[in-house]
Amino acid sequence: METHDEMNGVIELEKADLVKLYNKNHEWHKMLVDKFNLPSHSELPSLPQPFMLGFDRAKLVFTEGTGKYGKGYAEAELDVSPNDPWFWCHFLGDPVMPGSMGLDAFLQLTGTWSFFSASIYGRARALDGNYTYNGQVFPNSKRIYYRMDVNRLLKKKRLLFFDGHLAVDEPDNIIYTFGVSKVGFFTSEELKIPDAVVTNYYKPDWELLKYNVISWIENAEKFYSTNK
Description:
Number of domains: 1
Strand content: 25-35%
Number of strands: 9
CATH topology: Thiol Ester Dehydrase, Chain A
Shape: globular
Number of helices: 6
Distance between the termini: 42 Å
Radius of gyration: 19 Å
Helix content: 25-40%
């Protein structure tokens, strides 16, 4: 469970805390809604559900003077499993974690740091950045390590600048490098999101979604059982 070390400005998150974050019922949601006088918790940075969630645990450090630039940093880990969704669909006969997934997880960590900094609000959107890939994550990999260093936090403009990397199996086995990047935080009005209850404009066919996912899994299972 979540632990705080207020003296050292450190918050550590475990899976149970991440569940609260993506379900939008973490204690900090109410606190930040009240602090910034927001209409709802949807105006805060968020995390995806497990199908796209990029890490299992995280350490967030806010103390001035820490990290590469003295502005704080974050670290996170993901335990890799052959059951991870991307391996059975990306690609048949060539299972590998998409590089875009590693990038997205890195951005998820950035949004999480911003959320717990309690100094910024808005829906997170990637704005600028660069990256270099020099390796891959395979189904037999064991663990992914993320590191994000805060470069600048512009509270009034709601902008965060940062860089970092992704390593696999060992913290120093770096395979993705992320240059100085920028994320902005915007209100739903600024993003021109429909001014309506979400269920008024997002009405997926849930039964079709479930059917498609099951059929895709069965197709992958058939492929690997007949191509040995």
